[in-house]
Amino acid sequence: MRQTEVCVRPFGGLPRRGVSLALTGCLILAAVGAATVVRAVTRDTRDIALPGEAAYPESITATADGTLYVSNFAGGGVTRIEPGASSGEVWITPGAFETRSTFGVLADEASGTLWVCSNDLSALGIQGPSDVKGAALKGFDLKTGAGKVSAPFPVSPAICNDIALGPDGAAYVTNTLGPQILRLKPGSQTLEVWKTDPLLAPEGKDAGLDGIAFGPDGNLYVDTFTKAKLFRIDVKDGQAGAVTPLTPSRPLVLTDGLRPLGDGAFLLAEGGGRLDRMTVSGDTAKVEVLRDGVAGGVTGAAKVGATAFITVGQLAVITDPARKGTKPELPFRVLAVPLTAR
Known about the structure:
The chain contains 3 helices and 24 strands. By secondary structure, it is mostly beta strands. The strands form 5 sheets. An 8-stranded mixed beta sheet has the order 14-15-16-17-21-20-19-18, with no helix packed on it. It folds into 2 domains: 3-37; 46-338, TolB, C-terminal domain (Neuraminidase, 6 Propeller). The longest helix has 26 residues, at 16-41. It is globular, with a radius of gyration of 23 Å. The two termini are 28 Å apart.
């Protein structure tokens, strides 16, 4: 049946002029509907260049308008990418507000804050932009970029890796060098240990806790980098409960950034070169590949509309002794990955 037939039949009892007006209105609605369909299936395919020869992106986050923020594992600072732009510009200067190498970034629009993990990586031979010691969670004004929160880690050794926002408005952060998840309550400048558990401890010289995100069930989900393990931490009334290992549906490689998709699933970055969609059912994590074969590894992901933006870290160039003397592929990039409608 043609579109005009579908439109006209409900108005069969109207005079000719009424039918004409009804048909015109129906065709307008049909055109609007078609335009809506076109917008719904439009996918962002940008390949975004990051500035500098040592950008080494570790994490990415987005605000509701599509602005992206990217950290810098080696040089520090934060790059901002305006909506629709094909390149980024340094927004938070390396070393600003006593920062060093930057890891996790998370936009908290409710409080107008960009949360940033700052770390001293000099022990790895990565000097960063200053000589400030230790790890800290920093908060910058989302409009001006001015520093407003500085919360050093109260435990050692420590690497502030990534951040999640809880239902209580607090920032929760992972410690890669220890078994702790820390919490910064709204309005506070002091991090507290929220959960520690032997299951979350790194093994030997392995990098431990990394990605972190709250699920729709109110529980907290984390992963570890080197061993690529997944865990659920039960949460009740803001208090941490039992830690449960999750079994992935396939082997994972160097699990990194973890972000909620908003539909009950998560975006999961793998340093082995994949972006995944992860859905948890019971103690099992179903892992579906959204993009594979990303040379340089995927370190972080952020969702904007029907698109996931991923950072290509190339971190092995400066962390793997076997890669010493090699050069990164320039420019460093953020890639767009279309998300399949569900």
